Task: structure prediction
Amino acid sequence: MKVLVTGAAGQLGHDVLELLRLRGIECRGADLAEFDLTDGAAAKAFVTDYAPTAVVHCAAYTNVDKAESEPEICAEVNGMGTMNMVRAALAANAKLVYISTDYVFNGSGDKPWKPDDEYGPLNVYGMSKVQGEDAVRSLMTRFFILRTSWVFGLNGKNFVRTMLRLGEEKPELRVVADQVGSPTYTRDLARVICDMLPTEKYGIYHVRNEGFVSWAEFADMIMKKAGLSCRIIPVSTAEYPAAAKRPLNSRLDGSKLAESGFAPMPSVEDALDRYLEELRSAV
Ligand SMILES: NC(=O)c1ccc[n+]([C@@H]2O[C@H](COP(=O)([O-])OP(=O)(O)OC[C@H]3O[C@@H](n4cnc5c(N)ncnc54)[C@H](OP(=O)(O)O)[C@@H]3O)[C@@H](O)[C@H]2O)c1
Result:
């Protein structure tokens, strides 16, 4: 196996590369410095030259609120950029892993979303990730689409880091309590990606840490585990305006993972414990 990982300078791409190397798998990372996804010729030239047997496509436009004011750029990177990666992977006869999101759903009800449920994105970012999924599904057969949610990793900004910083500075914080989902540690997601890569078990999977929490519950968990006295005040989405509308029900049904013979994801709490430990040892 020879693997190309896009978004190598981001949270997930970094951890996928690290794990591939640990497993002794030939791999290479690429980010904007190597090629811009939106340049189809550059993407194809880079992939053809490296000739991978698999592409893990982690690169994306990920600023959900900013996307509302620059929808064309977001669609170009996540929609057209993914189309470019699909074409490049096909030219190299490589299988492809595409990372997608809970934001492809409309967040109604309280039942966990299944992989075959209908799309209903509420914001520009979610729509662009649907375009990316469509590009993969319409052109390829050897693909894995992994929808994940609320990602945190060592190599980048995320909710956990923000809470740790604000928790040091403020006595209390207002955090949204009516959006429910599963925070996901990039190391755990990277493990699943690396387990799937050598298989032919193609399709759409939901991969997130086990357990559902609101942002406020997760913030509270972070404060307690980090030994911070900052008090979390639960508020509604309506009380906390943001540029992009977000789904209230971001629960993803992850049962297909174990049904397909892959090791299950650890719990949110276990993931947070390991993440905080890694942050401490990195200081
Ligand atoms: N973060 C989340 O909570 C979350 C939730 C669900 C799904 N996902 C999905 O999971 C995947 C990984 O997310 P992440 O948090 O690891 O993302 P990330 O940290 O933002 O990393 C994405 C990387 O892609 C690069 N990139 C952006 N535009 C590019 C372009 N035109 N050409 C080449 N590279 C480009 C970025 O470079 P710059 O930083 O220089 O722009 C960045 O290094 C993404 O597909 C994302 O949509 C994320």
